[in-house]
Amino acid sequence: MLACCGAALLCLALWTPAAHAYPMYNDGFGTGCFTCHDGFSGGPQHPLHAMHTSKFGITECNLCHSNGPGSTPVRTYTSGSGGGFGCVGCHGNDYGETSSSNGLAKASGYGLRQVHANNGVTVCATCHKPGLLGARNPFPAILPESVKPPYYKAPFSNLRNPCASSEEDSTFDVNLVGLDNDGNGFSDWPADATCSEPTTTTTTTSTTTTTLPVACGLAPAGGCVAADGGQLMVSEKASGKEKLKVGLTKLHSAVTQSTFGDPVTGGTSYAICVYDASDTLRDEISVARPGDSCGTPPKPCWSLISTKGYKYADKTNSADGISKMTLLGGDAGKGKIAVGGKNNASAGQTSLPTGIAALLQSSTHATVQILTVDAGCFTVTVTQVKKADGATFIATAP
Ligand code: HEC
Ligand code: HEC
Ligand code: HEC
Ligand code: HEC
Q1: What does the alpha-carbon distance between residue 56 and residue 82 come to, in Å, rounded to a whole number?
Q2: Which of 52, 179, 211, 394 is the most exposed place for a label (fewest CB within 10 A)?
Q3: What is the atom index within ligand 1 of the atom nearest the CA of 173?
C-alpha cells in the first residue's frame, strides 16, 4: 500500500540525487523507500513491518536489520549476520554482482526497479545505470519470476516459490496476488507466463474450472446482511499455533441457501475480511475452493446442510488456515455463520495469516465481513472488546 505517493513524487521532483540516499529504507534526512512506503517506520507494530515478519515466517531480524532488532539505518542491499542480503534477499536476485558500498557479493533489484518504472517512478534510473553501483554493463537480462530470490528458503523465511500468490500475497493489500519479482507487469501463476503452476502437497483438485477469488474492500462493504450477534477471536500467543474464530449469529433478515452462493456444484468462493475501529482492512482470508476435494482419502471440502446451507471441512487447513466453515440460513434472526482456522506449525500447517492481533491492538471495536464472489455478503461489528493486548483479540456483539 502506498502511504503518501502523491506527496512523495512531489518531493522527489524537487530533490537532487545525493549519495547514500536510496541504499537505505530511511537515510535520516527524509529520503529512502519510506517516502512512498512508510509502513515499516516505528517497527513491529506497523502494518508493513508486521506483515513481513509474521506472514513470511521471519525469525531472524537481521534479514533486514544490520545489527539486531530495530537497528537503523535499514539498508536495501545488505544486512547483518543471519541475513546478509537486506531487502533484495526477497525483492531481488543474485546476478553475481558486488556492492559498490561495501565490496561484498550482493543480490540486485533489477525486477523491483522495473516494477517502479512500470508505475511511473523514474527516479531509480538516475543512479542505477549500467556499470554504476556494482551493476554490470550492460545490465544483465532480468531473471524470470520462477527463479527463487536468495531468502526464499529455510531458515530465512517460509517463502519457497516466487510464482505462488498463496505464499507471497500480503494479508492487507487489496489484491490477492504476490510480487511481480521480474517486473514484467504480471504477478505469479497463472498471470505470469514465466511461471508454471505451483505444486503443493495440498493440491488435490482434479477440476479444471477456474475459480475466481473474491477480494476484501479497503473499507467494509455496504448492503450486507447484518448479524445481531457475533464474535471475533484472534489468538496469537503461541507462535505456530495461532487460532481464528469468527461467528455471526442472529442474521437480521431471512437467508436462503442461495444467499450463500453454491460452493458444492457452483463456483462460489469466499473472503473473510477484518477491519479495525477506523475501518482499515487488517486481515483478509480467501477460501476459493468450490468443488475441490480435501483430505485423504479425498472428499469434497464443501457439502450441503440439507436445503439450508453449506459446510466446509479441511483437516490440512490449507486455504489461509481455515479448517471449518458453517453457513446456515433460516428465517429472520435465525441464520448463522461460523468460521474456524488455525496454524499447526509442527504439522507444517502455517497458512493462517498472523500478526493480526498486533494490528488490532487497542482497537475499540472491529468489523468482520464474509463476502461471496457471486451471492450475498454478511457483516457484524463486535463492540464488546474483552482483550486487545496485541497477542490476543477477543470481542463480541452486541
Ligand atoms: C517515488 C515513490 C516510490 C519510492 C521512493 C519507492 N517506491 Fe516502491 N513503489 C512505488 C509505486 C508507485 C509502486 C507500485 C504500486 C504498488 O505496488 O503499490 C511501488 C511498488 C513497490 C513494491 C511492490 C512490488 C510488486 O512486485 O508488487 C515494492 C516491494 C516496493 N515498491 C519496494 C520499494 C523499495 C525497496 C524502495 C526503496 C529502494 C521503494 N519501493 C521506493 C513507489 C515508490
Ligand atoms: C523485512 C525487513 C525487516 C525485518 C525482517 C525486521 N525489520 Fe524491523 N524494521 C525494518 C525497517 C525498514 C524499519 C524502519 C527503519 C527506519 O525507519 O529507519 C524497522 C524498524 C524497526 C524498529 C523501530 C526502530 C526505530 O528506531 O524506529 C524496531 C524496534 C524493529 N524494527 C524491530 C524488529 C524486530 C524485533 C525484528 C525481528 C523480529 C525486525 N525488526 C525484523 C525492517 C525489518
Ligand atoms: C541517489 C541515488 C539512488 C537512487 C535515486 C536510487 N537508488 Fe537504489 N541504491 C543506490 C545505492 C548507492 C545503492 C547501494 C548499492 C550497493 O552498494 O550495492 C542502492 C541500492 C538499491 C537496492 C539494493 C541492491 C541493488 O543494487 O539492487 C535496491 C533494490 C534499490 N537500490 C532500488 C531502488 C529503487 C526501487 C529506486 C527508485 C525508487 C532507487 N533504488 C533509487 C542509490 C540510489
Ligand atoms: C522475506 C522476504 C522479504 C524481505 C526480506 C522483504 N520483503 Fe518486502 N515483501 C515481501 C513479499 C513476499 C511482499 C508481497 C506482498 C504482496 O504483493 O502481496 C512484500 C511487500 C513489500 C511492500 C509492499 C508493496 C505494495 O505496495 O504492495 C513493500 C513496500 C516492501 N515489501 C518493502 C520492503 C523493504 C523496504 C524491505 C527491506 C527493509 C523488504 N520489503 C524486505 C517479501 C520480503
Answers
A1: 16
A2: 211
A3: 18
- Answer whether 113's CB lies under 8 Å from 183's CB: yes
How far apart (Å, rounded) are the C-alpha atoms in residues 265 and 105? 54
CA 107, 110, 113, 118 dihedral sign is negative
Cβ–ligand 3 contact at 172 (below 6 Å):
no
pLDDT, one tens digit per residue, over 45-55 is 888 898 888 88
- Predicted confidence at residue 55, as pLDDT, reads 85
**Assigned C-alpha cell, 391:** 497477542
- Residue 250: C-alpha distances to residues 240, 259, 330, 395 (Å): 33, 15, 9, 16
Please state, in angstroms and rounded to a whole number, the distance separating the CA atoms of residues 114 and 280.
30
Tens of pLDDT along 374-389?
A: 889 999 999 999 999 9
Q: Residue written as cell 446451507?
A: 309
Residue carrying C-alpha cell 475466481 = 212
User: What contacts 122, CB < 8 A, 6 or more positions away?
Assistant: 116
In sequence order, the 6+-apart residues with CB closer than 8 A to the CB of 141 are none
Residue 244 near residue 349, CB atoms below 8 Å: no
Residues in the chain: 398
Q: Exposed, middle or buried: residue 6 (CB in 10 Å: 0-12, 13-18, 19+)?
A: exposed
Ligand nearest to the CA of 10: 1
The per-residue pLDDT for 204 is 41
CA angle 302, 266, 306 (to 5 degrees): 50
Q: Are 294 and 327 in contact (CB under 8 A)?
A: no
Using a 10 angstrom Cβ sphere, with 0-12 exposed, 13-18 middle and 19 or more buried, the burial of residue 307 is: exposed
Whether the CB of 128 sits within 6 Å of ligand 1: no
- Residue stretches of the chain with pLDDT short of 70: 1-21, 171-172, 174, 200-211
Grid cell listed for 139: 545490465
CB distance 366 to 394 below 8 Å: no
How far is it, in rounded angstroms, from Cα 232 to Cα 245?
6
